[in-house]
Design brief:
With about 100 residues, the chain is mainly alpha-helical. It is built from 5 helices and no strands. It is about 70% helix and about 0% strand. The N and C termini lie far apart (about 55 Å).
């Protein structure tokens, strides 16, 4: 789970970091590429490395977006068991003012 959080953070910085400071996005993509390679996830490493190429990087960014959407999109809208446990429940009914 920690590894996924790191990859997600690097993907977000890789996608939008160039807007904040030029070169930040490319550095995040290269770090992400190396990290995926260390984990022996070759396809993801290639996508992250492609992210540093100006035109191809846009396609790689979309592929990463699709990957994260597929991973987290299935559970979207459903509260986790921990949030249900700590949820105070529905608000109390309102009484009309006379």
């Amino acid at each position: 789970m920690v590894s996924e959080s790191i990859h997600l953070t690097l993907d977000v910085v890789g996608s939008f970091g160039g807007i904040v400071a030029p070169g930040v996005a490319d550095m995040a993509d290269l770090i992400n590429c190396a990290y995926y390679a260390i984990e022996d996830q070759r396809a993801q490493a290639v996508l992250s490395c492609l992210g540093t190429i100006p035109i191809a990087g846009n396609g790689a960014m979309m592929a990463d977006f699709v990957k994260w959407t597929e991973k987290f999109g299935a559970g979207a809208g459903r509260p986790s068991s921990s949030s249900r446990r700590w949820s105070p429940g529905p608000p109390p009914p309102r009484h009309p003012q006379p």
